[in-house]
Amino acid sequence: xxxxxxxxxxxxxxxxxxxxxxxxxxxxxxxxxxxxxxxxxxxxxxxxxxxxxxxxxxxxxxxxxxxxxxxxxxxxxxxxxxxxxxxxxxxxxxxxxxxxxxxxx
Length: 105
Description:
Helix content is 54%, strand content 0%. By secondary structure, the chain is mainly alpha-helical.
């Protein structure tokens, strides 16, 4: 019998705004999303309460650093990778410098 990923990850019967935002991703992939955004100013896109709720339920666990390490490895191994179009140094710096993520890392 297939498990219910929404229940497995502790989402409640009456979803909060955060749960409404992430539940479709959890159901599709079976895992909570690693992050809402990587480099954008969150308040313009997602309400701060939603960001707080999601990060409370699904901690980032230093996700930005892990993502940047993986990105740098990809660029080193595949200099033709699409991520190089975002800037080999600029994109990782933007991820690590995201002031909205620092609070939750």
